[in-house]
């Protein structure tokens, strides 16, 4: 019974969020069990280009470090905000969501070569948080019960929290920068005088991921509860 309940809940997670978070958890489990090592996963342009270890282009986004507070913190935020984007502004637009993943991953890979980052998963999480926060500007947030602010400040609060933990903020800045580029090209520039839509999802992605009918039994996660935890709960203004 417990297994069936877990399976049902697991299958309720939208497909992109389910695939990405599962890949991250399985990668971390494989490292913990010493089936693989982080040295086989990290981003290294020389090994990619000279030794054709192309899997590093993907695996560096899947490893968030050993199991601990930092891993759990990143997994919670990755799951919550990835899911809310997929069930919110990307509802019924799976191909567009996948394209955002590809666009963001490509930019981070390019920028990562200049700032010598070896794992980009945390920056990718910050990108997702940034895009969600900009698309939900009227949501009020509460961080650990200490700070109250509106959603667009959330990525900067997370960056400050990383700084307090002694982590490098370059990762957070990279995620914010890439998230802003996507948000500007997708949400801002097309609505400007003389603007246009530069980001267009390839037709083959739409053929692969977009379906004409939606599941009537699908149960989306309420976007009005963005955090779901004490450090990220919020509510819409006027609600």
Question: Can you walk through the features of this model?
Answer:
With 239 residues, this protein is mainly alpha-helical. The chain has one domain: Rhomboid-like fold (Up-down Bundle). It is 55% helix and 5% strand. The chain is built from 10 helices and 3 strands; from the N terminus they run αααααααββαααβ. The protein has helices spanning 2-12, 15-32, 45-50, 56-59, 69-87, 94-115, 121-135, 154-164, 170-188, 203-209; strands at residues 139-143, 147-150, 233-236. It has a 3-stranded antiparallel sheet with strand order 2-1-3, with no helix packed on it. β1 and β2 (147-150) form a beta hairpin. α7 (121-135) packs across α9 (170-188). The termini are far apart. Belongs to the derlin family. One of its GO terms (cellular component) is endoplasmic reticulum membrane. Its main location: endoplasmic reticulum.
